[in-house]
Amino acid sequence: MLLYIILGLLILVGDQLLKGWIVANVSYGALHTVIPNILGLTYVQNDGAAWSMLAGQQWFFYIVTIIAVGVIGYLFYTSERSEKLYRIGLTLMLSGALGNFIDRLHLKYVVDMFQLEFINFPIFNVADTALTCGVICVFIAILLKEKVTHD
Predict the structure, then answer these.
(1) What is the pLDDT of residues 10-41, one digit of tens each?
(2) Which of 3, 31, 91, 149 sits most deeply, having the most CB atoms within 10 A of its CB?
(3) Cβ(64)–Cβ(104) below 8 Å
(4) Is there a catalytic annotation at residue 112?
(5) Does the annotation mark 151 as catalytic?
(6) Residue 89 CB: number of other CB atoms within 10 A?
(7) Are 110 and 46 in contact (CB under 8 A)?
């Protein structure tokens, strides 16, 4: 259990520290190339979801996050200790959801900064990355469990 708490806290604190650094050191909207033609840092404020969907609907994101945190907590609590990949995925999802929730509560928008320069993709942050990786881990864990039960 301690491993999951440490992992979640590292992601949550890292997300918030990087967001704070971006706000303090990167001009709003300016692109700073990190890896040419691949990755840049661009400070943006997103009051919606990806591609600014549901922009300005903070109440919706508050409700969805509260429900998601409850469901993730329940799934973690009812999962078996041996389901490590599944639990890591849930931990990533929880820390990602909380990272963006903190922004929404405190700032009324989410600070995003990672820009993929080789594709038209929404600018994202550490919390978004944790959420995505968490979903992938949970999906893989479910597929692996299904394969074992059907073999």
Answers:
(1) 999 999 999 999 999 999 999 999 999 999 99
(2) 91
(3) no
(4) yes
(5) no
(6) 25
(7) yes
